[in-house]
Design brief:
Elements lengths: L22 H17 L10 H12 L9 H8 L3 H14 L5 E3 L5 E3 L4
Helix pairs in contact: 1-2, 1-3
Length: 115
């Protein structure tokens, strides 16, 4: 029986290079950014339903393990602290402020440092 492939982020050394952003790393950053952005949307719009917002929040705050493309897996691949990201998102959801984020003109939080 063949061995199961290692699907954890550490199996992808190209994601470890911090100076050159591989396409895979940019994809994971986009996934994380979109989930945070959708979670903080608050109200549905033409391009974002209430279901989309709830799905993004469920993905960010799920208690499951680090399976491929889970929140924990993406954070590990990007060398980000999932607890700090979750705390910042919760703070922004509660009162619109967080020490690790600043507001942009687009009314979407811009991460300064969450690792």
């Amino acid at each position: 029986m063949p061995a199961k492939p290692n699907l954890y982020p550490t199996a992808f050394p190209e994601l470890e290079n911090r100076h050159h952003k591989a396409p895979e790393r940019r994809l994971l950053e986009a996934i994380l950014w979109r989930a945070v952005s959708d979670s903080l949307a608050g109200t549905p719009s033409d391009h974002l339903s209430q279901c989309d917002i709830q799905d993004a929040q469920a993905w960010l705050f799920e208690r499951g393990g680090a399976y491929p493309f889970s929140f924990l897996w993406v954070c590990e691949a990007l060398d980000k602290c999932p607890f700090r990201i979750r705390r910042a998102v919760k703070d922004l959801m509660r009162n619109g402020t967080s020490g690790g984020y600043r507001r942009a003109d687009r009314k979407v939080p811009v991460p300064i440092s969450v690792s």
